[in-house]
Specification:
SCO6045-like_C, alpha/beta, 12 strands, Xyl_isomerase-like_sf, SCO6045-like C-terminal domain-containing protein, two-stranded antiparallel sheet, 514 residues, eight-stranded parallel beta sheet, MbnB/TglH/ChrH
Length: 514
């Protein structure tokens, strides 16, 4: 598995700072924000310097009920090729629901939502991961996500779910320790237990990020400093295995470059602390094994003669051997021992034992145990209906499905609406300028009755159309500016460069007279 080292999430807002940061071995870029034919100059310069760039997808929805979209897979593969990446990553999440599979309206979450840890969901996820693996030119790694809500009737822990996913598909894992912390606060899940159940040999790299707590709920914001509990989980992980790469994520509220460098320093120190603990554990285990061999050699001659002086000398030689193994080799070269242990782990030592400890995970199905097509479709339909009901409650105000925490669903619904408002303001920055202080209130009101059915750019246009249809905004000048903005962007090309058909013009006039 390729060693990546220490990295940071590349974002346009901090591109210059990232280029100047010392000790950056690699960067990760959001795949959907990169155009293969027009790579940002900053990424080009980083690549020329030999800095690895990994595309990180957010829109495949591998945990959804539908098969992965071929167009999205093709686009992701194109970005991999353009960036010359050694691997590509996505999320264990669903981002849309409804449609033909469930004969219900198509809905977009605009956010990564958790999949239920059930057999149905696992079967669908494994099949979707295999489809993606066949379409992508490099290895795929998938990330555990943060969640505000829990599914009722789950059949596995997160560690067991990830273990079996990796076991059945061979997919690599992107472990986000900040998400483990989020799930600890929000869902009462023990990060140490999750780490103990993970297939550590499958880890491709690790994410570290910040967030904040409000009213007992942890929000994985990627806009705040990395807190101590997240660094502690990273140390715990590093005490178990040497991760091939670790990356700091920051998506908003970017601090000064010096602050980002301090966070990277804290991440490196957490890794070093974990590495020391890992080597100590390995030395103790090596010493115990050597002493056991020494004691076994001290039992006496194989012919059964009574122990005598020779036995004492045997014990002495055995003790010296143990001391030599523990001090003469490993203590002087802990790095070599750590690398040797890592090599054994990558080779697969201990996997069977971990499988036995995790119950259902111990029964390995293998990559070729595919469900029958009729079973696969039935599982997809069951999962699709469940996900559509939850997403409809989150974005369309329908009743909360049985078994969910209604308060938490409400918190998640408000968070989704707030994120929609924020992202639309980014993709259409003219709207907050035109509407001023009324933008956010107006958008949140619109979101309550208008679920997102396409991307954020389409959402911005639909929002503007909704306001204009209602004769808003009240200020005539603002309404004229909004109308011009909408007309300029609502067709296949700008008005100034496209013919306007009479029917389309007449339709718009009727709409915009109101």
């Amino acid at each position: 598995m390729e060693r990546l080292g220490t990295g940071i999430g590349w974002r346009p807002e901090i591109a210059d700072a990232v280029e100047r940061m010392p000790g950056i071995d690699w960067v990760e870029a959001v795949a959907e924000n990169v155009c293969p034919g027009h790579l940002p100059e900053s990424l080009e310069r980083l690549r020329e310097r030999g800095v690895t760039v990994v595309p990180h997808g957010v829109s495949l929805g591998l945990g959804g009920a539908d098969r992965p979209d071929e167009g999205r897979l093709t686009a992701l593969a194109e970005r991999v090729e353009a960036l010359g990446s050694p691997l590509v990553t996505e999320h264990i999440a669903f981002v849309r629901a409804g449609g033909a599979l469930t004969a219900s309206p198509h809905l977009e979450a605009g956010h990564l939502l958790p999949v239920p840890r059930t057999r149905d969901a696992l079967d669908v996820l494994c099949e979707n991961v295999r489809i993606a693996q066949e379409s992508l030119p490099v290895p795929l790694a998938v990330e555990n996500i943060a969640a505000l809500i829990s599914w009722p009737g789950e059949e596995m822990t997160e560690g067991q779910f990830l273990y079996e996913l990796a076991d059945r598909t061979g997919v690599r894992l992107l472990i986000d320790v900040a998400n483990l912390h989020t799930n600890h606060v929000n869902r009462g899940e023990d990060p140490a237990k999750a780490l103990a159940e993970l297939p550590l040999e499958a880890i491709a790299y690790v994410h570290v990020a910040g967030g904040f707590e409000r009213d007992g709920v942890w929000h994985d914001s990627h806009a705040h400093p990395v807190p101590r509990p997240v660094l502690d989980i990273l140390t715990d992980l590093a005490s178990r295995v040497s991760p091939p790469g670790v990356l700091l994520e920051r998506d908003e509220n970017f601090p000064e470059p010096a602050e980002l460098e301090r966070e990277l320093g804290a991440i490196r120190r957490a890794l070093e602390t974990g590495a020391v603990e890992r080597v100590k554990t390995q030395l103790l285990e090596a010493g115990s094994a050597a002493m056991r061999r020494a004691e076994a050699g001290a039992i006496g001659p194989a012919n059964g003669d009574a122990p005598g002086d020779g036995d004492a000398s045997g014990r002495t030689r055995g003790a010296r051997g143990a001391e030599g193994e523990l001090l003469g080799g490993n203590a002087e070269r802990p790095g070599a021992e750590a690398r040797a242990a890592e090599g054994r782990m990558l080779a697969g030592d201990g996997a069977g034992q971990r499988g036995e400890e995790t119950g259902a995970v111990g029964a390995t199905r293998g990559a070729f145990d595919l469900p029958h097509p009729s079973e696969s479709r039935a599982a997809r339909q069951r999962l699709g209906l469940a996900q559509a009901a939850l997403l409809s409650a989150l974005v369309a105000g329908t009743p909360v499905p049985e078994g969910f925490d209604r308060v938490r669903v409400g918190v998640q619904a408000r968070a989704l609406a707030a994120k929609r408002a924020d992202v639309v303001a980014k993709v259409a920055p003219e709207l907050p300028v035109i509407l001023g202080e009324d933008y956010r209130t107006a958008f949140l009101g619109y979101a309550q009755t208008h679920p997102m059915t396409g991307g954020y750019r389409r959402d911005a246009l639909t929002f503007a159309e909704h306001l204009l249809s209602a004769g808003r905004p009240g200020d005539a000048q603002a309404r004229r500016e909004l109308r011009e903005w909408w007309l300029e962007r609502s067709g296949p090309s700008p008005r100034s460069r496209r013919p306007v058909h009479r029917l389309a013009r007449a339709t718009r006039k009727v709409l915009l007279r109101r």
